[in-house]
Each structure stands twice: as structure tokens, then as C-alpha cells.
Automatic annotation (TrEMBL):
GO terms for biological process: pseudouridine synthesis; rRNA processing. It comes from the Archaea. It holds the Pfam family Nop10p. This is Ribosome biogenesis protein Nop10. The gene is nop10.
Length: 60
């Protein structure tokens, strides 16, 4: 059995901490809920270096 645990997409601006749910929307604010699991690692990811470069650029 697979359950899709989701997190409120607007939790950083609306809530103090992440709000997790199984539904399509946040039970507290009504915003869309998105998948909370990270993307699986793929060593053949052709665009991995670009994503990491964007992440490094956003941290600075």
C-alpha cells in the first residue's frame, strides 16, 4: 500500500512549520498540497549539474 503524504505548498509563508496531509489541499489554509518526498536519485541524470548550479546560486 502506497500513501501519498503531501505538504502545504504555502507553508513557509503561511504556517510556522510544515503542514502534512493526505488530501489534495491543505486542511488549515486551503492551499494546494504538493508531494513531500524528494525526487529519486538517478546517476544518469542529464540535467543534475544544472539543478545543482541553480541551487548553489540561490543559496548565495
Amino acid at each position: 500500500m502506497k500513501s501519498d503524504i503531501r505538504v502545504c505548498s504555502a507553508w513557509e509563508s503561511t504556517h510556522e512549520r510544515p503542514v502534512y496531509t493526505l488530501s489534495e489541499t491543505c486542511p488549515e489554509c486551503g492551499a494546494d498540497a504538493e508531494n513531500s518526498a524528494p525526487a529519486p536519485f538517478d546517476p544518469t541524470d542529464r540535467y543534475g549539474e544544472y539543478r545543482r548550479a541553480i541551487k548553489r546560486r540561490n543559496r548565495e
